[in-house]
Amino acid sequence: MGLHERRQREKENIRTSILDAAFSLAKTEGWASLSMRKIADAIEYSAPVVYDHFENKEAILYEISLNGFHCLHIELLKAQRGHDNPEDQLKAIVDAYWKFAFKNKEYYQLMFGLGMQCSGKGMMKEEFSSFQDMLYDCTYKIIKKNGSNPDNACHMSHALFSAVHGLISIMMMRNDDIPSTMNKTTLDETVSAFIKSL
């Protein structure tokens, strides 16, 4: 391995260490307490080294949020591919989204700005909207199958996304006084009612 390749590999290793340390700190202390200095201390480098790889904390948060959206996208695809008809796909996709949110709370909070500023404003990428796109696709197919007006698919799927995200947000921000079973039951009933309404 040449000197250039070795330096590139070292640079990538430091970059990965920065992202891993930032995510680990967020899990233990919360996103609000994250700072470039804490990240530098965690990887045992000086703060200028962290700034060599990322312009600021926002750039680190954006990179982590991209990884979160990528992981979510993979889970949604698995859920979708496990079923043939759009009704079952829709239920599976919503269920996978719900499970991802609560299994990966730190990711979800960062991805959607729960209790903090949303990361990556104005820098959206394809995977940011994969859940909404899949909801639309299933909704459109169900509407077409039922002989209803397909022009309503966009509005209807957006309403479902808002309901699902709203339930998750309530659960995450007020989990001390809201039973988890209530919200999951509400979610399942909402999806069933939504499918019947199409």
Automatic annotation (TrEMBL):
Keywords recorded for this protein, A-Z: DNA-binding, Transcription, Transcription regulation
Highest taxon above the source species: Bacteria
Residue ranges for the DNA-binding region feature of this UniProt entry: 35-54
Record flagged with keyword Iron-sulfur: no
DNA-binding recorded as keyword: yes
Domain HTH tetR-type, first and last residues per copy: 12-72
Signal sequence, start to end: none
One MF term in the entry's GO annotations: DNA binding
Any single Pfam family the record assigns to this protein: TetR_N
Entry protein name: DNA-binding transcriptional regulator, AcrR family
